[in-house]
Amino acid sequence: MGISERKEKQKAELKQLILDASVKLFAAEGYEGFSMRKIADMIEYSPTTVYLHYKDKNEILFELHELGFQKMQSYNMDLFDIANPLLRLHKLGENYIRFGLDYPEFYNLMFILPAPMETLKTKLDCNWKGGDDALQVLKGIISECMERKLIQPGDVNVMAMAIWGMVHGLVSLAIRDRFAKLVDVCDVVPTMYKALHWMVNVVEEK
Predict the structure, then answer these.
(1) Do residues 125 and 37 share a domain?
(2) Tell me: the pLDDT tens digits for 94-125?
(3) Whether residue 96 sits in one domain with residue 49
(4) Taking the CB of residue 98, how many other CB atoms lie within 10 A of it?
């Protein structure tokens, strides 16, 4: 291995070390306790070294939020074993809620905090891969439901946004201890099933 290759390998290893420490710090202290200095302390390097690899903490948070989407995707490993697309849609919503309740800090980062989106705006390709991939899964299932006349045909984008917004609202209320104002938090998934059943069966009045 030549000198340049060795330097690139060391650079990649240090960047991964920073990212691994960032995951641990974020999981332990959340957004409020996250800082470049704390990351540097964890890996026993100076903050300057961290800034050589990431321009600011938002850039690190963007990578963490992409890791969050990978975690969420793991909840859907068996999703397409479900033949009925309407039941698959229900399961997708349940998996989304389970992920949000299991990883509230990652959920906040992925769907609520502005930091990742601020970094995304600075990227030349503006590719929100994690979010776009997740949305395509939802839209694909909705399209299949419509094709098989399991739900009323209509604008897939509108239906996807409505369903996503509903499930997102349930998770957001639950992880902020607001959900229990209406029903017990253990009923968040059954509530989603009832709300989803109502949403996809609504027929507009003539």
Answers:
(1) no
(2) 999 999 999 999 999 999 999 888 888 887 67
(3) no
(4) 15
